[in-house]
Predict the structure.
Amino acid sequence: MTQPHDANTALARRDLQHIWHPCTQMHDHEHVPMVPIVRGEGPWLIDAEGRRYLDGISSWWTNLFGHANPRIAAGLAEQAKTLEHVIFAGFTHPPAIELAEQLVKITPAGLEKVFFADNGSAAIEVALKMSFHYWLNQGHGEKTRFIALTGSYHGETLGALSVSDVALYRKTYAPLLLTPFLAPSPDAYEGEPGESPEQTATRRLATMRELLEQHAHETCAVIVEPLVQCAGGMRMYHPSYLTGLRKLCNEYNVHFIADEIAVGFGRTGTMFACEQAGVAPDFMCLSKGLTGGTLPLSVVLTTQHVYEAFYAEYNAGKAFLHSHSYTGNPLACRAALETLAIFRDEPVLERNRVLSVHLAQKLAPLRDHPYVADVRQQGMIAAVELVADKATRRPFPAEQRRGQRVYLHGLENGALLRPLGNIIYFMPPYVVSESDIDQLVRIAIEGIALAVKD
């Protein structure tokens, strides 16, 4: 079908009349195009004039099995004819029950209870509140603090921001936020010269031990993003850090919260990142890929032991206090069930391993690029760190917005590559082909060449 040649412009104009977009300086759209997407097809997004964009970031890390996935769409259509929503206090429904049962089966052993929420930030809020409330119910009301990692990001509601370490957010909203204890990240990029990622993890665990020795008595939980600190710059670290952290949390009697919102569901090479360390957290937060990128849904899984701290007669006043109107939404639960069915019925992780090797091979030449300090990868997540000086790793000034040049080059050439500052990353849907990866990397390399020019 022939599309009007000015359809994008018309939709963009209408959008900018009323819509305020997330994580955006709206003034940018005086010179950065707004892209109206009207259709999705596998790893492709299609705009109002028929131009196609290869989705290199899974639409903010959510889309696993392609846009307009027929299996998920069919499940949603069937569910919509039966039950679209029902209050989840005092009521239940089969999609939520089945989803909880399946999640308990596939997540690390010991996670037996599932609490539903709407999105990733909400899941973090639930985990923080649940950990604090557990200790309160146990007679330890003095435990009111949390430990997070430097460079961490856990969401943008106030509780989630409180345990994040993104300078811009903390500077802007500091008067509204809790203050966590910050432990140095085990980020391998920040390792000492000649130090292996595992040695960096060991050294950072020693610092975490010192922090717990001083503050465990007032600490509810340690919260981390397992293996990859995504929004903090795709920082990656060795699984041994998680193994050691689990032991420290046991030793010092604090909870371990695993934020697998971005890294869960096969993104790091295993179904869940914690599997690579052989650990089970006290709380696991999941969202994004949970529904294959179709509808908002999140869950917090926790242990029977935590659950029992809230289980009492009504008058004891120990019930957990958290709710959302759309908690356990049947449509979202059905999308999640179809997503899990694809993992069950198809060799997703095996195929991802092949694709991740291919991605690594295509990115390898960038290791020698004069303005690239690091090329790192964990499964289906890869990142390229652009710097002004390779020898010293001196970054480009943020105000130069070099990464934005790569983004704009991507749009001009049919690819969605939305960098984190000057870090160009790849997190494509699992339905990409090797030729799709070739195209993404080629466009990125071209964009990098343009971005580093003075």
User: Anything to note?
Assistant: The chain has a mean pLDDT of 97. Residues 7-68+347-451 form a domain with the Aspartate Aminotransferase, domain 1 fold (CATH 3.90.1150.10).
